[in-house]
Amino acid sequence: MNEIEYLIDIALKNKNNSYSPYSNFKVSCVVKTKSGAIYKGVNIENAAYSPSLCAERSALSSAISEGEREFLYIVITGDSHDTFPCGVCRQFIREFADDKTKIIIANSIDDYQIFTIEDLLPHSFSNKDLENR
């Protein structure tokens, strides 16, 4: 099993930790940082819907709260074929992903696609737009 397959396996197993009683749509995200640490997240729903948290922001927030800022892999898996991050999550990922960060949309260990943040959010607004202010 290669590194990507290993991370996908973790994400697929972690999906069962999703708290999604309203949509019954489970999503899991696993991130691997430049330091080698692995963080997991799942979608966490709320009866009021707007306070719900997507798996991508859950995993990234966990890593960020531990001081991580550089990500090698972001693996996303969900209950539907090719579960892509929502717009809010894409912008959240944009804040921390660089052109080397691999964003993996996985259906299984042997069925996945690899993207960059530029693929998922082209012409995006980022912290680089604020550098010369």
TrEMBL record:
Residues 2-128 form the CMP/dCMP-type deaminase domain. It catalyses: 2'-deoxycytidine + H2O + H(+) = 2'-deoxyuridine + NH4(+); cytidine + H2O + H(+) = uridine + NH4(+). The active site is at 56 (proton donor). It comes from the Bacteria. Its EC number is 3.5.4.5. It is an enzyme of class 3 (hydrolase). Its cofactor is Zn(2+). Keywords: Hydrolase, Metal-binding, Zinc. GO terms for cellular component: cytosol. Substrate binds at residues 43-49. This enzyme scavenges exogenous and endogenous cytidine and 2'-deoxycytidine for UMP synthesis. NCBIfam families: cyt_deam_tetra, PRK05578.1. This is Cytidine deaminase. The gene is cdd.
